[in-house]
TrEMBL record:
InterPro entries: AcrC, Acyl-CoA_DH_CS, Acyl-CoA_Oxase/DH_mid-dom, Acyl-CoA_Oxase/DH_mid-dom_sf, AcylCo_DH-like_C, AcylCo_DH/oxidase_C, AcylCoA_DH/ox_N, AcylCoA_DH/ox_N_sf. This is Acyl-CoA dehydrogenase family protein. Transmembrane segments: none annotated. Keywords: FAD, Flavoprotein, Oxidoreductase. Belongs to the acyl-CoA dehydrogenase family. The keyword Cell division does not apply. One of its GO terms (molecular function) is acryloyl-CoA reductase (NADH) activity. Residues 6-113 form the Acyl-CoA dehydrogenase/oxidase N-terminal domain. Residues 121-216 form the Acyl-CoA oxidase/dehydrogenase middle domain. Its cofactor is FAD. Pfam families: Acyl-CoA_dh_1 (PF00441), Acyl-CoA_dh_M (PF02770), Acyl-CoA_dh_N (PF02771).
């Protein structure tokens, strides 16, 4: 078993790291302060081929595989978790179209969302349907050649900026989860509007919004897959998305560890560098161990997905462990920085705020423990 990256993966990681240092890092603090969506950075990522990773070349994407996507998201997250979240969540839409869409949908949407610079989003969550996805209330009732959508979605990352969204709605409200379907909604469709823009603790520049559907009419050809198969589509998409969140968490943890190492080598107290203090060295040992374990769990989940093997349990494990590792490592790194770490002059306080969401979105840690325990017990 070879744990080394291929030459192609190593080169892509290097390109993504250089991009993050040049294009992402200089904007991170300001974007966190203003909450401004990084549209220009997204367009630059599209030109680099990052937004089309995972989309086949024949459909206008960059090709590559799940590990490649993970590597890019990780490197972007090291410098700005909000920008990484935007990229990671954008890739959910094309993954749904690739697996479940019609040839017409693939031909229309994939080139635009691949390297074409169009942003996409995934709309499942509602005020009463967070961890309990079965409580979705938004409806999509057939009327001739159209569906008429009514309802509200909340906490949708990039939803106010997205050109295309896959919206999960009940085409048969009497049939519970078996009545849930996935439907494409395009920006600017009459009856579709943006509601509240959330003020968040972290990943502030990713923009998280409320979506409102008021007699919003979309063509029936915008149905993805079959009617009533929306729950399966959503869960399949979330399995992959969890590798993306785990990659975000890994990037945050790696950068926090590097910040701690750099600070300990530079900071002198009691006439000696912090590296001379055994207690802090033990912190570094714990942090580095968790980062390394998280990395290989993320890589393993990505490998299983790209090779067509079952990966639901492993994706949940990677997301659970990497997100908790991100919180652990950023917290200890901030502690090592002392009072300086608490100040905005250093990136640790932002990184700690950003890390927290990785334990919550795309399934809370508690939900992942349910997923993992069911798989193990089964």
């Amino acid at each position: 078993m070879n744990f080394n990256l291929s030459d192609a993966h190593a080169m892509l990681q290097k390109v993504a790291r250089e991009f993050a240092e040049k294009e992402v890092a200089p904007l991170a603090a300001e974007l966190d302060l203003t909450g401004e969506f990084p549209r220009e950075t997204f367009e630059k990522m599209a030109k680099c081929g990052f937004t089309g990773i995972g989309t086949p070349v024949e459909y206008g994407g960059s090709g590559a595989d799940e590990l490649a996507k993970s590597l890019v998201v990780t490197e972007i997250a090291r410098k700005c978790a909000a920008t990484a979240a935007t990229l990671s969540i954008h890739t959910i839409f094309p993954s749904v179209i690739i697996k479940f869409g019609t040839e017409e949908q693939k031909t229309k949407y994939l080139p635009l969302c691949g390297d074409g610079g169009k942003l996409s989003a995934f709309a499942l969550t509602e005020p009463n349907a967070g961890s309990d996805a079965g409580s979705v209330k938004t409806t999509a009732i057939a009327d001739g050649d159209e569906y008429v959508l009514n309802g509200t979605k909340c906490f949708i990352t990039g939803g106010g900026q997205a050109d295309y969204l896959v919206v999960f709605s009940l085409t048969d409200p009497t049939n519970g989860l078996k009545g849930l379907s996935a439907i494409i909604v395009e920006k600017g469709t009459p009856g579709f509007s943006i509601g509240k823009i959330e003020e968040k603790m972290g990943i502030r520049a990713s923009e998280t919004v409320e979506l409102i559907f008021d007699n919003c009419r979309v063509p029936r050809k915008n149905l993805v897959g079959k009617e009533g198969k929306g729950f399966n589509i959503a869960m399949t998409a979330l399995d992959g998305a969890r590798i993306g969140v785990a990659s975000q968490a890994l990037g945050i943890a790696e950068e926090a560890l590097d910040e701690a190492v750099k600070y300990m080598k530079e900071r002198v107290q009691f006439g000696q560098p912090l590296t001379a203090l055994q207690g802090l060295n033990w912190y570094i040992a714990e942090m580095a161990t968790k980062v390394e374990a998280a990395k290989w769990m993320v890589y393993n989940a990505a490998f299983l997905k790209q090779t067509g093997q079952p990966f639901t349990k492993e994706a949940a494990m990677a997301k659970l462990f990497a997100s908790e590792a991100a919180m652990f490592v950023t917290n200890l790194s901030l502690q090592i920085h002392g009072g300086y770490g608490y100040m905005k002059d250093y990136p640790l306080e932002r990184m700690l705020r950003d890390a927290k969401i990785t334990e919550i979105y795309e399934g809370t840690s508690e939900i992942h423990k349910v997923v993992i325990s069911r798989a193990v017990l089964r």
